[in-house]
Amino acid sequence: MTEREQKRKPAPARTDEEVVEAPATSETGEKLKAEMDDLLDEIDEVLETNAEEFVRSYVQKGGQ
Amino acid sequence: MSVHKVCGIETEFGIMLRGAGESNPVTASSLLINAYLSDLQATAVGPTPKVGWDFEDEQPGNDARGANVGPASPPEIETHLVNAVLTNGARYYVDHAHPELSTPECADARSVVVWDKAAELILQRSMRAARQMLPEGQELVVHKNNSDGKANSYGCHENYLMDRSTPFHQIVVHATAHFVTRQIFTGSGKVGSEAPGVSRTEVPFQITQRADFFEAEVGLETTLKRPIVNTRDEPHADAQKYRRLHVITGDANLSEVATYLKVGTTAIILAMVEDDAIGEEFTFRSPVQAMRRVSYDLTLQRPLERTDGTSIRPIEVQWALLEKAQKYAETHGLDMVGAEVGAEVLDLWEGVLTDLDDDPVKCADRIDWVAKHRLLQGYRERHGADWTDPRVAAMALQYHDLRPERSLAQRLGLRRITNDAEVERAVSAPPDDTRAYFRGRCLAKWPEAIVAANWDSLVFDIGTDPLRRVPMMEPMRGTAKHVGTLLDECTTPAELLARLGT
User: Fold this and answer.
1) How far is A59 from chain B (nearest CA, A)?
2) Which of B61, B290, B305, B481 has an alpha carbon 20 to 30 Å from B73's alpha carbon atom?
3) Which fold has domain B7-424?
């Protein structure tokens, strides 16, 4: 019961850190990096060839 | 008193015509939807619906705060634009230069996920059908997102049925607290900021697509000066009994868990508001500022200022709401949101908050902004690209591409809630536990006899004068249980109308 309550409470605030991007996970091991590399290899083929042109031309009219 | 949380999502999609010079989004959207409808007709065994929408009772200018104060500009009800009702009870139409699809009314958040995924399939099939009608080398590309990166935004709106007698002020207080803080799991992520004066250095990446566009706390607007709580008062149901809360703050989600939590948690909170079961009020000194601060802070650690001078982190607000929801489940039960669905939502909610507290990257299989951020970080590290690199922005957009061979979201191992069979079914079949069932089944069985449809009525032409309107003012009636056998037995619409006694 106590354990479950502990799980529910929010974790104490982490001390202020220099935030440039989201904190790197403590679990970024070889396996995760390898998975990411595989994924990036895989998607390389479907990425936009001219990224700059694509981003520039992606214009929408405002909606709701 | 709580009423059943009938709910649904209406999504405006981004659209581009590629391989051509200029493209008019209204024309492109019309072509897209018409291609889908033609395709249905071509592949159908029997007649298919070409039923128009009946605008007669639409009153988007009604304001929940009193009478008809009217929007800043007259509502644009473009009656000449493509506007179809599908056999799954959904509405598929052109609105403000975007294709828009509104799911049928659902009795619980899980059904919403099913019909929202079905909507993605419909958009995919629309693109394929359009490809066959366009010149070689041209194609329509649809994105399920909310901004073009150039300060133009379009919405993913949620709708929740509520008890009319709940004081609107109470809804504003609690909904604001939830909309501001739920962003930590509903956000789909965005490179940079579209708020005036915010640089790419200050905000290289943020949690939501929409936070930049909210400038007011409460109001009727949906296209500019967007309010956190929208006061549109168009219940599309018995207006004495019901309110429809029209929520415009959310991002469109590719992750099924994110959609499930977005709708599921909100439904529970609104039920608690109706039963006055929340108790504590989380009011921010500036909700608009708070909304942006939550979105800009990837660490989830930055506290928000409350009106009493204290501060609180967004995740603490969510933990408090979850605990109250867990207590509410024990004291009142969760029947109003679907008991099983409600229990599942509470579990997922707790799991996500636990992981966000520990390390957000643990949520990469459930939360869109985390999955997207992790992908972009991986790419940046590999290629030494910074946040201003157009390849990074292009990938962020491509996350939302609905073409299955191009979609990046598809490839990231996001957890499923639904299965393929039920989603396929939902492309053409309605939920069986709301009035969408009656609408969908009538459209499938007698499309040639239905002149017009609306959320709360169907208009039949059975050869007599005048046309016959069947009112559907109760969202939880007209279900399979109520009318399934009747619909099975009636061979003609005239027989149906006679037996309905209308």
Assistant:
1) 6
2) B290
3) Creatine Kinase; Chain A, domain 2 (3.30.590)
